[in-house]
C-alpha cells in the first residue's frame, strides 16, 4: 500500500465521528460484549483475567443508588467501540469530633457525595483516538449534574494506559493503594478455631454495629442498610471468644457494644457469583492439568487437607468479604476464624475463590488468609475533586488527606 493511500485511510478514520450516548440494553448488549471480549484486562504477562458479565453489561453498577453506563459509537455504521460505567453514592470522607457531655468527645463521620468510574473499555483497534478521554469527560458531566463532589477510579498500578489517562489527561491524583487479597476455595473444608464462636447477625443488628463502630472509616457508605438488605448480601458474621456469647444468649448489637468481649471481629459476605464470572485465560495445558490434579486428589482425600488449586481456568464465581473489622488484641485471630468460616460457606456455594480488599496498612490484614499469586498487593485508587466550591469544612480537600489505617470497600463496586 502506498504512503499516500495509507494517509488517506488514516484521515478518513480520524474524520469518523465519535458519539457518546447512554447505553440501551435492547440494542447495545452484543456490541458491548464484543468490545469487552476484545479487552481482556489483566496484569501484564501471559495470563489475563476475563470477565463474563452474564449478559448484563450494567451489572457491576446497578446496585448503587445512582448509576449510568455510556457507550461510544463511531461512524455512520454506529459501531460500538467503547464504554464506561459510573455510579454515585454518599460516603465518609473524614471525621470531626462532637462534644458529647463535659469531657466526652465522640468522632462523627463527615459525608461527601462520591462518584466512581469503572469498566472503562476502548476497543484495541480504536485506541489513542481520544475515545477513552471523551467517555470519562461525559461521565464526569453526569457526575457534576448530580452533585458529586469527588470522583475516583481503581486500576492496576501497572496499567500504564489507564494511569496515564486519568493522571495526565483527566486531573486525577494517586490517592490510596489498598490490597486485593484472594484466597482459594479448596475441595476440603477448613477447620475453624474452637476457641471462637461465630454468630450470624440479622441486617438490623449488622447495620447498628457497622454504624456505631465503622461509620467514621473512610469510604463508609451512608446507605449501608441498603447493602445489608440487598439479596446479594449473604450475611454478616461476628466472631467472639467461645463462652462469651452464643446464638441463644445474643443480646442484640446495642447491648453487645455496651459490654463487648476483649476481642471480637465482624465481616459480611457478598455474592459476586450471581453478578459476574471471572476466568483466567492464557494458562498452558501443563499448568491447567497440574491444577486439576491437585483438585482431584483433594476431593478424593479431603482429610489430607491438600491446598489444591481452585478452578480458575474456566468461568468461576466468588464471594467478596466486606466490612472486615474488629477490636481488641486478638481481633486478627477472630478475623482469621471468620475467613475460614467464609471459606466453607463459599465452598458450599460452589465458589472458586474468596476475595476481599483492605487498606495497605490495615492491621487486620494479617488475619486474612490469601495466596500472593492470586492477590493484587497494590490496587491503585486515583481521585479528583469535581468542584472547588464545596464546603467539606473540617476535612478540607479530601484528595490531600493522608490515608487512614482502614477503608470500607463497597461490595457493589468490586
Ligand atoms: C485505558 C483505555 C480506556 C484508554 O483508552 P483510549 O481511547 O486509548 O485513550 P485516549 O485515546 O482517550 O487517550 C487519552 C490519553 O490517555 C493516555 N494514554 C492512553 N493510552 C495510553 C497508552 N497506551 N500509553 C500511554 N498513554 C496512554 C495519553 O495521555 C492519551 O493522550 P494522548 O493520546 O494525547 O497522548 C484503553 O487503553 C483500554 O480500554 N484499556 C483496556 C481496559 C482498561 O485498562 N481500562 C481501564 C480500567 S479503569
Structural overview:
This protein is of the alpha+beta class and 414 residues long. It is built from 9 helices and 15 strands. A hairpin with a 5-residue loop joins strand 4 and strand 5. Coenzyme A (COA) binds next to strand 5, helix 3, strand 6 and helix 4.
Going across the biggest sheet, name each strand in turn. 1-3-4-5-6-15-7
Give the structural class.
alpha+beta
Q: Regions with pLDDT < 50 over 5+ consecutive residues?
A: 1-12
Portion in helices: 25-40%
Radius of gyration from CA coordinates = 23 Å
- Per DSSP E runs of 2 or more residues, the count of β-strands stands at 15
Q: Give the cofactors and ligands.
A: coenzyme A
Q: What fraction of residues sit in β-strands?
A: 25-35%
- Let me know the largest β-sheet: 7 strands, mixed
- State the CATH architecture of the largest domain: 3-Layer(aba) Sandwich
The shape, in one word, is globular
Estimate nothing, just give the exact number of structural domains: 2
CATH topology (level 3) name of the largest domain: Aminopeptidase
SSE topology string: HEHEEEEHEHEEEHHEHEEHEHEE
List descriptors:
414 residues; alpha+beta; Aminopeptidase; seven-stranded mixed beta sheet; disordered N terminus; binds coenzyme A; Acetyltransf_1 domain-containing protein; acyltransferase
Amino acid at each position: 500500500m502506498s504512503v499516500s493511500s495509507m494517509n488517506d485511510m488514516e484521515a478518513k478514520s480520524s474524520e469518523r465521528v465519535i458519539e457518546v450516548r447512554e447505553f440501551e440494553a435492547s440494542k447495545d448488549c452484543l456490541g458491548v460484549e464484543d468490545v469487552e471480549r476484545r479487552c481482556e484486562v489483566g496484569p501484564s504477562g501471559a495470563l489475563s483475567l476475563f470477565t463474563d458479565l452474564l449478559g448484563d453489561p450494567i451489572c457491576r453498577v446497578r446496585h448503587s443508588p445512582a448509576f449510568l453506563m455510556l457507550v461510544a459509537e463511531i461512524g455512520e455504521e454506529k459501531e460500538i467501540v467503547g464504554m464506561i460505567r459510573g455510579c454515585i453514592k454518599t460516603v465518609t470522607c473524614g471525621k470531626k469530633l462532637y462534644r458529647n457531655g463535659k469531657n466526652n468527645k465522640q468522632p462523627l463521620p463527615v459525608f461527601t457525595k462520591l462518584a466512581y468510574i469503572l469498566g472503562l473499555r476502548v476497543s484495541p483497534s480504536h485506541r489513542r483516538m481520544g475515545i477513552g478521554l471523551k467517555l470519562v469527560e461525559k461521565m464526569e458531566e453526569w457526575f457534576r449534574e448530580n452533585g458529586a463532589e469527588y470522583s475516583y477510579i481503581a486500576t492496576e498500578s501497572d496499567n500504564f494506559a489507564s494511569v496515564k489517562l486519568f493522571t495526565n489527561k483527566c486531573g486525577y491524583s494517586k490517592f490510596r493503594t489498598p490490597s486485593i487479597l484472594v484466597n482459594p476455595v479448596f475441595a476440603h473444608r477448613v477447620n475453624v478455631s474452637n476457641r471462637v464462636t461465630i454468630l450470624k447477625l440479622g441486617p438490623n443488628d449488622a447495620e447498628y454495629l457497622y454504624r456505631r463502630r465503622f461509620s467514621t472509616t473512610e469510604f463508609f457508605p451512608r446507605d449501608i442498610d441498603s447493602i445489608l438488605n440487598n439479596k446479594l448480601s449473604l450475611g454478616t458474621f461476628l466472631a467472639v471468644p467461645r463462652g462469651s456469647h452464643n446464638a441463644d444468649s445474643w443480646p442484640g448489637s446495642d447491648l453487645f457494644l455496651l459490654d463487648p468481649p476483649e476481642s471480637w471481629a465482624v465481616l459480611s459476605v457478598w455474592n459476586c457469583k450471581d453478578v459476574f464470572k471471572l476466568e483466567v485465560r492464557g494458562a498452558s495445558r501443563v499448568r491447567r492439568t497440574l491444577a486439576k490434579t491437585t483438585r482431584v486428589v483433594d476431593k478424593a482425600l479431603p482429610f489430607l487437607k491438600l491446598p489444591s488449586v481452585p478452578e480458575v481456568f474456566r468461568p468461576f464465581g466468588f464471594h467478596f468479604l466486606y466490612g472486615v473489622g474488629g477490636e481488641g488484641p486478638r481481633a486478627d485471630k477472630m478475623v482469621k476464624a471468620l475467613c475460614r468460616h467464609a471459606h466453607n460457606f463459599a465452598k458450599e456455594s460452589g465458589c472458586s475463590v474468596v476475595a476481599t480488599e483492605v487498606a495497605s496498612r490495615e492491621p487486620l490484614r494479617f488475619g486474612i488468609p490469601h495466596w500472593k499469586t492470586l492477590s493484587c498487593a497494590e490496587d491503585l485508587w486515583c481521585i479528583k475533586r469535581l468542584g472547588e466550591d464545596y464546603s467539606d469544612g473540617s476535612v478540607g480537600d479530601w484528595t490531600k488527606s493522608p490515608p487512614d489505617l482502614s477503608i470500607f470497600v463497597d461490595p457493589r463496586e468490586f
